[in-house]
Amino acid sequence: MRLDRRQFLLATASLLSAPAAMAEDAQEVFEIVKTDAEWKAQLSEARYLVLRKEDTERKFTSELLNEKRAGNYHCAGCDLAVYSSAAKYDSGTGWPSFFEPLPDAVRTKPDDGWFVTRTEVHCRRCGGHFGHIFDDGPPPTGKRHCLNGLALTFKPTAA
Questions:
Q1: What is the 3-state secondary structure (H, E, C) of 22-85?
Q2: Strand 106-111 and strand 97-98: pairing?
Q3: Which of 19, 31, 61, 159 has the fewest CB within 10 Å, making it most exposed?
Q4: What are the pLDDT digits (tens) for 18-65?
């Protein structure tokens, strides 16, 4: 059987759209679910844009960038502890960076924006967007969790 140009293009388009349709069917379910209006009421506009709309804060603007105390970083949306200060390091990128999250604190998904597939990292409890994970971090993991400070709050360890 010989395909004409139109049939070939239609067949190719359907094959290319299949992974996207399958990904939409596999939507992650979170413990904390709120309406867009509820998130807007709870969060500042800047935090809302980062956590709920996957925006990125300007580099070198986060108050958490130079935080050096011992403690845990929590999701600014649901207060889940997600990263330890023991895993934080200065990556020189202008965003708070960590080499690993706390156990069972985050989830990841492919992010196909910017003409390349990156790994997006988000809160496992509310789905709040934190940032992205790259393979240029320090030992022991070799990972760099490059995060928006607006997505996090810091709670120091009691002395």
A1: HHHHCCCCCCCCCCHHHHHHHCCHHHHHHHHHCCCCCCCCCCCCCCCCCEEEEECCCCCEEEEH
A2: unpaired
A3: 159
A4: 444 334 445 788 999 999 999 999 999 999 999 999 999 999 999 999
**Is 146 annotated in the active site?**
yes
User: Which range has the worst mean pLDDT, 15-19, 88-92, 97-101, 120-124?
Assistant: 15-19
The active-site residue, picked from 75, 78, 126, 146, is 146
Domain 32-156 in CATH 2.170.150.20: yes
Query: Is residue 150 predicted with pLDDT exceeding 60?
Result: yes
pTM score of the predicted model:
0.81
For residue 150, which of 123, 122, 130 has the smallest C-alpha distance?
A: 130
Residue type present at position 5: R
